[in-house]
Amino acid sequence: MPARPAQLPPFLVCLAALAPAMAQSAPPRDRVVLVDGKELRGRVVHEDANEVLLRVGTTDKAIARKLVREVHAVAAHHRELLQQWRGSSPEDPVAMLRLARQADEQGLPHEARLFRWYALLQRPDDVELHNALGNRRAGKQWLVALGDKRVPFDRADAMGVDFAAAWRLRSEHFDLRCAAGLRTTLDTLLELEGQYHAFHAAYGDAVRLLELCEPIPVHVYRDRAQMPQQSGAIGAYYKPDEATLFTCCENGRAYALAHEATHALLHHTFGRALRAKGELPAWLDEAWAEHFAGRLQTRVPGKPVLLDRSVQPAHRTTLAQIAADELLTVQRVLNLQQGDFQASTGQASKYAQAWALFTFLCEHDDAAIRATFVDYLRQAAAGKGQSSTFRKLFAPHERLLPDAWR
Question: What average pLDDT does this structure show over 19-34?
Fold first, then answer.
């Protein structure tokens, strides 16, 4: 349950279904072939059984699925590539090069470079790989670019003591600077991409999620001491005003990555990309991040697995230890502000109850309750997430809400 930095403004989010036509500009990397043979170019940002949403410039055009014969989309290729990655070992250079070639063929140049870097870690003297990655030979050494300098490949990781010399690599949806070494950089990028697709799989059926067309900046520091100063010993946070995720490396992994990546995805997918009009309530902001983090099993670096339900044992333990007369009421949870989550007093119980309420409504066995919660999400994203909206929507189910704490 990572703390958020003090005095950060709450970010704005808007569900795609409520978004204006103007959106993030996207290069025309995709093709949609109609049944009459006409071919349209743009970026496929969403498709389902009923329609294909094609972004041309900054305008999203809905095309009825019955009019579409073929769709050639980067998003689909990226999902396929990530599936292949899940079954491959990063210690197998042959497998990594096979993935790199697949990425090349499918128009995913950033991923192609990532897999070649994985291969190079196993074959550090491979001339062809060094040349493909743009490294330069200097005598018997190979020099790689770190910031505005070139340093020997075998000493590059050690340069991370200075964040200015951090590795900087791209993936389809993320732009990462990492001072914790090349392998951690690669694993973190693939972890983030896995989380991106898991986020869409987890919530895409209920909330219309569009493809992200702008990379999210992420900074991973060598340790907490290297991080920019914030109030308290904060190990991870997302800053909406900089549209950047900040975290550090702990035990070889990026700390609280899923929680903060959720904040980043919400902001970039809805607020930043679609010029949001509504403010997501603080309880929902944090609860959503905790719910998604609980739905990920992250045992293998770079390969998160999406679970059917959100699992947060620490929150369950916290709830079990709170006396009944000390539990916050549903009304109080709905009225929690960002500062309430930042305060150390009762912090664990606030996160636990927010997560429990989200989980109770999102995963309820009653389809009507789940549908009502989706309705609330849409209204909250449109700037109508006040507790009065929640109470009105859930009035028929009010007596059931305290069951969330059980």
Answer: 75
